[in-house]
Structure formats: structure tokens, C-alpha cells
Write a structure and sequence with these properties.
Blueprint lengths: L1 H13 L21 H18 L1 H4 L26
Length: about 80
């Protein structure tokens, strides 16, 4: 349903109406699978790696390498996968 659908459903439910959402693809909508959640996880992980690599120029010594756990890097189509 996305953010707009969720807002509309919440507003209608608060008004006392019964609300049902029907997804055309994935149950739970786009966000947890390939939208907001996976992209934010991957962007944040990349930001952390980049920041860690700046340590030698600012505050001493560091050795940074990604460890995505078993199965390689996160798959943006599967938002349920956690970053180690």
C-alpha cells in the first residue's frame, strides 16, 4: 500500500470504517522487500565502511573490511536479510 495507502487506511480506520489492503505483488508492500528498508540498510553499511576508512587520516590506525556473512552482500530484492 505504500506510505500513502498506509496513511489513508489509518485515517479511515480512525474514522470507524473497516479497512482492508490488497497488495498487487508482495504481502507487506514494496518497502520491506526492495524499497526503503533494503536501500537504507545498504546505504548505511556503505557509509560506515567509508567512515571507517577515514580513521587513518584523522585519528590513528584502522583496518576496515566488509563482512556480509554467509551468502555475499545483501540483496536489495530481499529486505528481510540482516546485515551482520
Amino acid at each position: 500500500m505504500g506510505p500513502g495507502g498506509e496513511h489513508a487506511a489509518g485515517t479511515l480506520a480512525e474514522a470507524g470504517l473497516a479497512v482492508a489492503g490488497v497488495e498487487s505483488r508482495l504481502v507487506g508492500g514494496e518497502c520491506p522487500y526492495w524499497g526503503c528498508v533494503p536501500s537504507k540498510m545498504m546505504i548505511r553499511a556503505g557509509d560506515l565502511l567509508a567512515e571507517g576508512r577515514r580513521i587513518p587520516g584523522m585519528a590513528g590506525h584502522s583496518e576496515i573490511s566488509p563482512d556480509w556473512g554467509a551468502g555475499g552482500p545483501p540483496d536489495p530484492r530481499r529486505g528481510h536479510r540482516r546485515l551482520g
